[in-house]
Amino acid sequence: GGGMSDDEDRRSLSEDEDGEIEDGGAVDAIGGEEGGADGASVDGELERDRLEMLARLDAKASMEELMMQRAEELDYHASDMYNDDDDSYGGAPVEVDEYEPVEYQVATREPSSLAQIYGDGASAGVELKPELARGLKLHGVHELVTWTCTDGVGMPPRWAFVRNKPLVSCVLLVCAPGVDHARASTAAELTPNVKKRLGTGVPTWFDNPTATEVNILKALLFSVPAGGDGEPRRGGVARSRANDGDKKGATAGAAGDAKGPYGSTDARDLLRRIGDGPFPPEHYLLSAADMAEMDYPIPTLVPTRDTAGDDDDTAGDDDAAGDDAAGVGRKRRRDDAGHEGSTSRALALPEGYVVTQPAGGGVARHPPLTMCAMDCEMCYVGMGADERLELTRCSVVGPDGSVIYDKLVKPAEPITNYNTAHSGITEEQMRGVTTTLEDVQRELLELVACETIVVGHSLENDLKRLRLIHARCVDTVALYPHQRGPPYRTKLAHLTERYLARKIQEGSHDSVADARATLELAMLKFVFGPGFGQRPAAGASLFETLAANGTACHAIGPQITMRECASSGVARSKTTASDEATAVTAAEWIAELHSKKKKTSQSDGDGDGKGFLVFAHLRGYHRHLDESNKRWAEHTGQARAAEEYASIRAAAENGRSDAARDATPKGDGENGEPDGGIAIEAGDGYCDVEEGIAADAALMDLDERVRQLWDAMPENGMLILCTGAGDTARARTAQERKWKRSRGLGPWGPWTDEAEEE
To answer: Chain-centre distance of CA 536, in angstroms?
Structure first.
């Protein structure tokens, strides 16, 4: 479009310097006369075409003649300037005396600083748009971060507007799980700093209401879409096909291996390959916090009376300092006479439990067994509210998968339900069995030393039935977590079929087969590394995306956060033990990084240094919710309810008001005192009012940390506070109890509509 017609082309070529049309007028006249005759015969049309062609040839000859006359004046041939086959302009350059050459100068301009572009008084800002944030999911928060910290990555978020984005000096992303939108709205007076500095937030949605902190953090930090569809896509992080849990990908990576996609999965072969793994087996041990979270049997702290610290106050202070350094709590109290004494806490085993011992230091053998896998089968004893599972079989396999212990166990009470479908135990098998739980404990203490790594699937259930406490545990539930997080767990049969290419637990269970499968699953992790069997994250890492686009990322938080979420893409990370330490470190880093940014800007002369991101995980409020939920679960839990079931029911029937007094735990001494001689105060139990006060205090502490971080922010710094989800710990416990009550388990009674509403 926009080109000239043939007639227009002829006019332009035949136009003289005065702008008058010469021979081209005849062409137009001829074309106009012939073209205007309507209804002409065929011969007339042919005659018209012939005359038009002659006119074109005459016009071309006239043009060539005219151009040759001009060319003679300039002393070069017109044929060089005009070619029938080529309309290009050729020949020697024209040299005319009256034309002087023009010199063109290209002036280079120094890059303007941001102050010159936006003005000295300009500042950055962000405006949230609640009307456009409806349905905003947690993973969508990355849109604001990536849009602010990078150039050309992603699209601007619909729910937020960043004013003068290039002026943003840095971004501080704070994740503080546990505060849902309703809590933030009703407790606004407890968070004046958040209200004053950050205003009213917008609600975000999270798909998993029973998620742990790690699940929430991963949803936030592994959220950058890997594709161009605008939504997070699974598999966004590129990983080695050999370490992928996908059977097809792994098969492609090991094509032609007749023993399976990962080589031989026999325990004897895997044992020889453990040394090739990226980490030793000790790397996969559960931490003390992990064991507490998964409800493993662990020693408890009990109060003991300190009788040596009252005479010498100085010595008492020194002892207290030493206790704090060693992690032993100590509290002051006044006795009945008004004298201030002190109490300390010591580790104690639950009743009936035994703990593994050092090799050669007790009954444990020397040298110790390096590794073993354990699985137990249980049957039901008791009736009604007292129905519970008890140990009926214990199997242990060694590092090579061979059976080193396998015995049936006779419970202390008669078996009421053999649970054959899940235990594989029948009445015929149990006839004549005389081995007791105490016999198994004694034999296991000889076989398993405290240095031995014990592998299991949901191992806490086996250790509870064995009444055995062991510190060095590897649990395949933690090695292969469910994609929805706790309380969901992937079945051992599914893991075995997927990664070991065989089926177990068909028809009934076999503890030896289960223990061997658990051992081989753990060894696959040891050989191929932590990434083996992990489901791809919902999206690419936010840290890796920003780092790839030139934004330095820094992360601060608890150890589990650094290990699970900040292992790559982070220029610097630091593990902290408290929210206060996290806030102090973040403030120091921001001041240091901003100072470096200003120096870089001044040296470059453009007034624009490179921005940076600091991520901080504040877990104090979520930790309070978790601990409060544990106290509530213990207060209303299955074990306590089973113990007090009869008395509470009798109290309700008789109208007595002393049910709470009967439910209060008492010791062996007088007036409910334990053996240590210290009275348990009424406030030591669970109380809704006290828990509410503690929750308010934890929320106020979070508000103070936000103020501390805000005060440390430089000019034009952006602070984003994201809480992720609400009280997921309570939701997790409620979900577990719903499952039990719907199946008639536990002393709470059947699941009702009222319980569902609650």
So the answer is: 11
